[in-house]
């Protein structure tokens, strides 16, 4: 079962960091994570804007805190 409160489906921190380093997987997993949380608007925003600066912010936050950015919670 996935660990509650961790991103990328509860995978370990090292695995999540490795996945966050790769832009395509970070983009796809970020979108899937937001839809899984029941935040379709945030998921759609990641579809269009998640491949640039959001990727860098997600990478930094994944290394520091193990979570992706949550700018929009609707």
Q: Which consecutive residue ranges, at least 5 long each, have pLDDT under 50?
A: none
Secondary-structure element series: HHHH
Through-space gap between termini: 25 Å
Structural class: mainly alpha
Query: Over all CA atoms, what is the radius of gyration?
Result: 11 Å
**Major sheet description:** none
Number of helices: 4
β-strand amount: under 5%
What report would you give on this structure?
This protein is 61% helix and 0% strand. The chain is mostly helical and 74 residues long. α1 packs antiparallel against α4. The radius of gyration is 11 Å and the shape is globular. It starts with 12 loop residues before the first helix and ends in a 10-residue tail after the last helix. The mean pLDDT is 83.
């Amino acid at each position: 079962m996935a660990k509650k409160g961790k991103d990328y489906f509860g995978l370990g921190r090292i695995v999540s960091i490795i996945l966050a380093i790769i832009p395509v997987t970070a983009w796809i997993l970020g979108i899937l994570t937001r839809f899984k949380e029941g935040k379709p608007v945030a998921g759609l925003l990641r579809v269009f804007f998640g491949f640039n600066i959001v990727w860098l912010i997600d990478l930094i936050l994944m290394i520091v805190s193990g979570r992706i950015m949550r700018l929009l919670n609707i």
